[in-house]
TrEMBL record:
Signal peptide: none annotated. Residues 1-254 form the EAL domain. Putative oxygen sensor; modulates the activity of FixJ, a transcriptional activator of nitrogen fixation fixK gene. FixL probably acts as a kinase that phosphorylates FixJ. It comes from Roseospira marina. It comes from the Bacteria. This is Sensor protein FixL.
Length: 254
């Protein structure tokens, strides 16, 4: 209950902020994008992890106004970076199941893009498999309403859910993010390497972009590149960083 009460006030008290984790070209190491991640610095509770508060936000429905705040914060930031003359990058925003089911989501996003003057192709939404397979017909319709705005759509934590190939083909998805659990034990786990190779082959045959999550070592980079995965994110390159650090990286590189 403490989290719920605090979270209700977090927006008006300005206790929420975004950090950004770079997405990197595994060959050139250039920053090609970022994932935006929500942070909460509570007056009473201190730093609270999204692992703790996102589920509470989801259960209470607070995730809808908070999620809208996140989308607006990210688009405002993209506009600031553009006004500072920084090279444009696409930023991924994590969407919760409740937000995805919200009928007004597409209209909300259109409004935010138009208010901030951000090009839709700079916004990517990260969804999970479980959000899509629950009610596939409705999901396809919801995905199209988002796709039609001109934004891109990614499946987060790919490989941990249960989406079949036939589903993947039906969904207007642009990219798959290979779950960190498969990347973690490369190159020691033969099974995880086989799964990762299978995901890479599947993605390329379906014409989907690929990004590996949780890249922490050079051997992982080598394996991913050798098998045709060009993009990655993870602690090897950078932890999630505050907006100033991200701007610096866009301006000067590593
Ligand atoms: O940033 P960190 O790795 O601690 O995130 C932990 C979890 O919280 C991840 O599963 C991540 O997807 C989720 N998360 C982080 N930011 C957001 C956000 O803005 N919205 C939603 N719905 N989930 C988020
Ligand atoms: O569920 P999602 O993929 O959105 O989770 C993002 C979370 O993963 C963030 O909390 C981020 O801090 C964490 N993360 C990002 N890169 C790495 C990494 O290389 N190793 C580990 N252990 N966690 C990572
Ligand atoms: Mn994510
Ligand atoms: Na992820």
């Amino acid at each position: 209950l403490q989290i719920e009460t605090g979270l209700r006030r977090a927006l008006e008290r300005d206790e929420l902020f975004m950090v950004y984790q770079p997405k990197v070209d595994l060959t050139s190491r250039a920053v090609v994008g970022a994932e935006a991640l929500l942070r909460w610095r509570s007056t009473e509770l201190g730093d609270v992890s999204p692992v703790e508060f996102v589920p509470v936000a989801e259960e209470t429905g607070l995730v809808v106004p908070i999620g809208e705040w996140v989308l607006r914060a990210v688009c405002k930031q993209l506009r600031v970076w553009r006004d500072q003359g920084l090279p444009p990058i696409r930023v991924g925003v994590n969407l919760s199941a409740r937000q995805f089911r919200d009928q007004r989501l597409a209209e909300t996003i259109k409004g935010i893009l138009s208010d901030t003057g951000v090009k839709p192709e700079l916004l990517d939404l990260e969804l999970t498999e479980s959000m899509l397979v629950e009610n596939a017909d409705e999901a396809v319709e919801a995905l199209w309403s988002l796709k039609n705005i001109g934004i891109t759509l990614s499946i987060d934590d790919f490989g941990t859910g249960y989406s079949s190939l036939s589903y993947l083909k039906r969904f207007p998805i642009d990219a798959l993010k290979i779950d960190r659990s498969f990347v973690m034990d490369i190159p020691s786990s033969e099974d995880d390497m086989a799964i990762t190779q299978a995901i890479i082959r599947m993605a390329s045959s379906l014409g989907l972009q690929l990004i590996a999550e949780g890249v922490e070592t050079e051997p992982q980079v080598e394996f991913l590149r050798a098998n045709g995965c060009q993009l990655g994110q993870g602690y090897l390159f950078s932890k999630p960083i505050e907006k100033e650090g991200m701007a610096d990286l866009l301006k000067h590189g590593w």
